[in-house]
Write a structure and sequence with these properties.
- The complex is a heterodimer of chains A (about 475) and B (about 350).
- Chain A is an alpha+beta fold and about 475 residues long.
- Chain A has 3 domains: about 120 residues, Uridine Diphospho-n-acetylenolpyruvylglucosamine Reductase, domain 2, CATH 3.30.43.10; about 120 residues, Uridine Diphospho-n-acetylenolpyruvylglucosamine Reductase, domain 3 (2-Layer Sandwich); about 190 residues, 3-Layer(aba) Sandwich (Vanillyl-alcohol Oxidase, Chain A, domain 3), CATH 3.40.462.10.
- Chain A contains 16 helices and 17 strands.
- Chain B is built from 11 helices and 18 strands.
- Chain B has a 9-stranded antiparallel beta sheet, with helices on both faces. A 5-stranded antiparallel beta sheet of chain B has the order 3-4-8-6-7.
- Classes of the chains: A alpha+beta (about 475), B alpha+beta (about 350).
- The structure holds flavin-adenine dinucleotide.
- Flavin-adenine dinucleotide binds next to strand 2, helix 5, strand 9 and helix 11 of chain A.
Chain lengths: ~475, ~350
Amino acid sequence: MSLPPDPSRIRAALAALVAPEAILAEGAALAAYESDALTAFAAQPAAVVAPRTADEVIAVVRWCHREGVPFVARGSGTSLSGGSLPVAGGVVITLNRLNRILRLDPAERIAVVEPGVVNLAVTQAAQPYGLHYAPDPSSQSVCTIGGNVAFNAGGAHCLKYGMTSNHVLGLKAVLATGEVVEFGGASREQVGPDWTGLFVGNEGLFGIALEVTLQLLPRAECFHTVLAGYATLEQAGDAVAAVVASGLLPGAIEIMEKLALEAATAAVHAEYPPGCEAVLIVELEGPREAVAADRRRLDEILAASRPVEVRPARDAAERLAIWKGRKSAFSAVGRLSPDFIVQDGVVPRRRLGEALRRINAWSRETGVRCANVFHAGDGNLHPLILYDGREPDGLRRAEELAGRILRMCVEMGGSITGEHGVGVEKRDYLPVMFAPEEIHLLQRVRAAFDPAGIANPGKMFPAGGAPALVHPGLHPLERAGVISRS
Amino acid sequence: MSPATLEQLVEAVRAHPRVLAVGAGTKPRPAAAGDGVTPLSLRALRGIVEYEPDEFTFTARAGTPVAELAQVLGERGQYLPFDPPLAAAGATLGGTVAAGLSGPGRWRFGGVRDFILGARLVDGEGRVLRVGGKVVKNAAGFDLPKFLVGSVGRFGILAELTFKVFPRPAARRTLRLEAPDAAAQVRVLQACAGGRWELEALEASVDDPAVFVRIGAGEASLGPLVADLLARVPGRELPAAEAEAVWAGVAGFTWAHAGGALAKVVLTSGQLPAFVAWVRAQEGARAWVGAGGNVGYVSLPAGAILAFSPWPGMLLRGRGPLWLGPRHPAAVMTAVKRALDPSGRFPGLDD
Ligand SMILES: Cc1cc2nc3c(=O)[nH]c(=O)nc-3n(C[C@H](O)[C@H](O)[C@H](O)COP(=O)(O)OP(=O)(O)OC[C@H]3O[C@@H](n4cnc5c(N)ncnc54)[C@H](O)[C@@H]3O)c2cc1C
């Protein structure tokens, strides 16, 4: 790829393709687009375009393709892995203005939405019909369906009904080649290779989703939510393994660790049993008869897991309070520290207790603070690693701990990411999980969608062609002068 | 040719310029290799590689019969909730994935695409590659395991597959709900789909119109759930033997013509009347509707050719083109084929 044209020429060319107000002004307005929720990295795009129609998106992508200019699709910029970090000198295509729900069919229980529709807005639109959109990332009040599709986002309630990809029935997209494709459709069944399934989770490397068909589910009739406090984190982890092994199928199983409990208490006045290192949240959902029966079994399992205290939610308000604490914990912990990175590794569920014990020991040993708030039922850890970017080796030490955790996840047979994607942040760990030939396969598939490598380049794949392991110190992109720390 | 190990499989792939993997032959149309293509039986590449009951995941070789898996999982009170079809006829796990077929249980938690976690595949160059992972949640790399569902062996040979499984409901009940014509069936299907009961299966018969539902739950909650549903939609509970016959018929396509053409077509529930009208317009055709009205199966008598469908479809057995109905071909599809199979060792999607 040759060097991108200079920024003013890019802006002038784009101005001919979209309405004038779709090109965001230079200067301060652009600063908001230099990073995503992984704030350690920032880069300056040449232009930020905010198209209002799918046709404008297509025109911009086709221009980028013709000129060899890299582009990054952007939803709300809540990616935690640097997925929506701009490419320096490239174009950011922000999709927030494509925010219409095109069709909501309560009889077929589907919604067709534009990519900039906010996750929670789908459920809000479905609510009058007793329906909801199942995947519920903690960021659901801001993140977009387009971003969810790109990352196959999950959430607290993915244990029973799966992630974004399990709820996307079809989509229309403009690929990096400018080709407009339609995959899947309105049916829950399909024939032929699952192109929709392949597109979901592409991390913005294939192209831009323009229309997404989502399946909606009836809202469960009944919920039973329990909060159990434990003296040790490992006990909470073992309780998860016991619940999973029991054959119950809860809608959610989450763990919050002490630091997160303190943060949630401070942020939203959540209340937790005193003297606990960890709290477990288990939620049963379904028809009232089934929940009543499962509840008795859950009570027995929890009683046997040596909790300090078990607090079932007695009404809808108490249930909401439990979830409010859980969903705010993330950003609340963030406020405890000037900077943090969130890890997203997955371990087999039966080894949760062991994994948590090791993380804690490493955290103590290195003096790097770490708080876990996570989707325990799937074995999906979210250690928030706290650091201060002003300390000379703050980020390096945090990244070192993050690296140890990721390697442990892979050694245990798990994954480096459950739902946040590889992005920039974990791209050097892809080779820990996959052999070079397997990474080359992924790269060939990427090249099939984007032969010129202009859609979100620099993400998912290790830097510099040959798979390389992570090295401490400056990030490879920093060394290349592509990004800098804000 | 019937390799029994991964090494033998790789050798066999490399030894033949044009090959197509076949399983037990329960879906002969996608497995029809065409001229000059060597069929490669995967039936000897079988057996469970790993099964962690506490983890609710397993890895098995592609040739493993799904009936064997059901047996092993069942001993631990677990199951593949999408009810792999044609189990009694010998269907293999690899063939089920390659054909992208799910049975009636797919209604509740999703189909084969929703339970596959990872695969080991042999690509067109004879390389053994892992895609996906072995844990229930994994977002690293593109979701090739899902892509391979329905890929009919045209992009690579599935050697090993990892799935998640669920706890099997302690008990089940089957109801036959009254729905004398297609319009009534749509109403009943949609009422059931939007209800509170969390049905396991929701199907509709075409020849003798009715709606069949299966509910799975703990023994104690089943009675009230069944009573509640029957209070809203007229019908009756089927005795165990009759219920078993219904589901065996659905899973085994025993209602279809022996030696005839059988196709899957993709629908939405509102299209059921049009589907039924289309079926009735064809000489001797029989049909069944599954997944709450999201899939139709149509069967023609022996000798008849199924060459057209108003909806996207796939021929499972009999004569006619593999793909039926409207499609959205795209240049990227050819490009992905080249990425996995640059020398065209496997047939193309349209061969
Ligand atoms: C407080 C907090 C809590 C979170 N909790 C969760 C959680 O529980 N579960 C979870 O999974 N994630 C969670 N996240 C991460 C994040 O919210 C998700 O990854 C989300 O899907 C990103 O959506 P977005 O609209 O912000 O996308 P962005 O961050 O703008 O973009 C994400 C990726 O999607 C691409 N993209 C965006 N739109 C499109 C499109 N239309 N077509 C193609 N590619 C596109 C971008 O290029 C980028 O690679 C959390 C983040 C925060 C800050």
